[in-house]
TrEMBL record:
The gene is fabD. It catalyses: holo-[ACP] + malonyl-CoA = malonyl-[ACP] + CoA. The keyword Acyltransferase applies. Belongs to the fabD family. GO terms for molecular function: [acyl-carrier-protein] S-malonyltransferase activity. It comes from Carboxydichorda subterranea. It holds the Pfam family Acyl_transf_1. The keyword Protein biosynthesis does not apply. InterPro entries: Ac_transferase_dom_sf (IPR001227), Acyl_transferase_dom (IPR014043), Acyl_Trfase/lysoPLipase (IPR016035), Mal-CoA-ACP_Trans/PKS_FabD (IPR050858), Malonyl_CoA-ACP_transAc (IPR024925), Malonyl_CoA-ACP_transAc_FabD (IPR004410), Malonyl_transacylase_ACP-bd (IPR016036). Residues 12-328 form the Malonyl-CoA:ACP transacylase (MAT) domain. This is Malonyl CoA-acyl carrier protein transacylase.
Length: 330
């Protein structure tokens, strides 16, 4: 699926790590459409809306709360944005968990079904590796190939956990932007990657996540999660949704989309590639819809000539709409 529109806008949806206590509150107070989404989320996951509004932060950081919470708030913001913009985006993409939000936005998956799927996904990912054994970290300032080579060298010196399908103890998991690669693996291997990255002239920033996501260590989660997705109703998206795994628009049939979502659990997120694919489709403006501004920064680093906007509360909504209107896109 492609588009010939030039100077079009795409919407982007964040994943785990963007959460913050209070997220979505101002938009739900100002717009009934956002409040209705959060009320629907509450019916599927009782107590979720309170955790979003009030915390505690320690609970919101737990994967089984974080993923459904970020999905629900992002969909709530999207419902407001789409009504106010009055124009269908040329494309969408979501970072990791955010891919489910993108599919909801494109009409490929019902919101309540997506919320249930994401909760099951979070539980499976949390259970895939014993707590504290694995995590993730961002390597800043090195080329993709250098980071991949560091991971391969560290893995050659180490043995994976007994019985694990992965031949590596650490892998490059998210190709977010030029000079920003997230690595994922065992804690001890991540320590070695940090030391090697610093020696190579880069920086290493540990991420506050509870497991080695988007790595082969998540294979047990993928096996557990696959049957849940197979039972989830899906249909062809109304506009292109660019996949994390391939950095290409998802196919229109449900089975193929489900297979990509299962593969996403163990595969790298090719985010910079997805942004470049949308730019090649004619997208000039990218609107991040959801808590945080991490994706906005990634757009600016990957596509310096693109316009990067963020929508997370009423003032940022007004600013994004004004820019899109001023540039003639809505």
């Amino acid at each position: 699926m492609t588009t010939s529109r030039r100077g079009a806008f795409a919407v982007l949806f964040p994943g785990q790590g963007s959460q913050a206590v209070g997220m979505g509150g101002a938009m739900a107070e100002a717009f009934p459409a956002a409040a209705q989404v959060m009320q629907a989320a509450e019916r599927v996951f009782p107590g979720l809306w309170k955790v979003c509004r009030e915390g505690p932060e320690e609970l919101l950081r737990q994967t089984v709360y974080t993923q459904p919470a970020v999905l629900a708030v992002s969909v709530a913001l999207w419902e407001v944005f789409r009504r106010e913009a009055g124009r269908t985006p040329a494309a969408a993409a979501g970072h990791s968990l955010g891919e489910y939000t993108a599919l909801v936005a494109a009409g490929a998956m019902p919101f309540e079904a997506a919320l249930a799927v994401v909760r099951a996904r979070a539980e499976a990912m949390e259970a895939a590796l014993p707590g504290g054994r694995g995590s993730m970290g961002a390597v800043i300032g090195l080329e993709d190939e250098v980071v991949e080579a560091i991971c391969e060298e560290v893995s050659r010196r180490r043995s994976p956990l007994s019985g694990e399908p992965a031949p590596a103890s650490v892998v490059a998991a998210n190709f977010n932007a030029p000079g920003q690669v997230v690595v994922s693996g065992l804690i001890e291997a991540l320590d070695e990657v940090r030391e090697a990255a610093v020696r190579a002239g880069g920086r290493y920033v540990p991420l506050p996540v509870s497991g080695p996501f988007h790595s082969p260590f998540m294979a047990p989660a993928a096996r557990t999660f696959a049957p849940v997705l197979e039972r989830t109703p899906m249909q062809s998206p109304a506009f292109p949704v660019v996949a994390n795994v391939t950095a290409r628009p998802m196919p229109g049939n449900a089975r193929a989309m489900q297979e990509l979502l299962v593969a996403q659990v163990t595969s790298p997120v090719r985010w910079a590639g997805a942004l470049r694919a949308m730019a090649a489709m004619g997208v000039s403006h990218f609107v991040e819809i959801g808590p945080g501004k991490a994706l906005t920064g990634m757009v600016r680093r990957t596509l310096p000539d693109a316009v990067a906007l963020s929508v997370q509360d009423p003032p940022s909504l007004d600013a994004a709409l004004a820019r899109l209107k001023g540039d003639g896109l809505i």
